[in-house]
Amino acid sequence: MKSPIPSGYSLQGKWNPAFCKLTQLSNVDVINDCLKGKLIYLMGDSTLRQWMDYFSRLVKTLKYFDHHGSGPFKKYILLDPERHIHIQWKKHGHPFVTNQLYSLKNNEYITREIDRVAGDRNTAIVITLGHFRLFPVHIFIRRVINIQRAIRRLLLRSPDTKVILKAENIREMHNEAEQVGDFHGNIQYLIMRDIFRDLNVGIIDAWDMTIAYDSRILHPPNSVIENQINMFLNYIC
Fold first, then answer.
1. Could you tell me the strand order of the sheet in which 63-64 lies?
2. CATH of 25-236, one of 3.40.47.10, 3.40.50.2000, 3.40.50.1110, 3.30.450.20
3. pTM of the predicted model as reported, rounded to 2 decimal places
C-alpha cells in the first residue's frame, strides 16, 4: 500500500488520486459486468454500511436477503442470483460505540472473519475501523496489527484475493471534541498507513477525500460514497 500525502484531490465533484488514474464507472451495465461472479465482504463500521444502501440503489438487480436479523447493526446481504453477485456487510468487533441496541450474536473480530475467508480472484474484502477514538491508542494499534497478520495469512493461501482498506473520515466537531475529535482520528489514520505500508493491499483514502469534499459529518453524503465505490470498482475490475 503506497500512497502519497495528500493522496489526491477533488475536481468537479470527482476524486482524482495522486498515485493512479481512475476510470469513472457510472454505467450500470459496466458495473454489473464488473461485479459478476464477485463475493464481496465489507467489514467495519456504519460508514462502510452506507455502501450497501448505495449499491442497492445503483444496481437494481441487487436485492437484500432477509436472514431474520434484528436492529440496524445486523449483518446485511445483497444478492443477484442471476449474475452470482454476493455483497455483505458485517460490523467489526468491540469496541463498537452506539446509543442503539444491537445483538451480540455472531459478534466477531475482523481477524477471525478474515481467517474464515477462502479467497480467490473473484473475492474482495474491504476493511474500515471506526469507534476507536474513545479508547487508548494501544488498543487500536493492537487491533490493526492483528488484522495485518490475518491479511498476510490470507494472501499466502490466496494471493489473488483483493484486499482494500478504507480509511476513516473526518467528522463534525460540535460535541465531544476531546473524546472523538479528528485529532485522535488523524493519529489512527497515520498509524494505519504505517502498519500496512509494505502490504499488497489497496487504499481508499476516505480521510483525504472527506477533507477535500469538506464533508464534516460522521456519515458522508452520497457524492463522497459514490467516489469511494468508484475507486473500489477500479481496484477489483
1. 63-64, 76-80, 85-91, 39-44, 123-127, 162-166, 202-204
2. 3.40.50.1110
3. 0.92
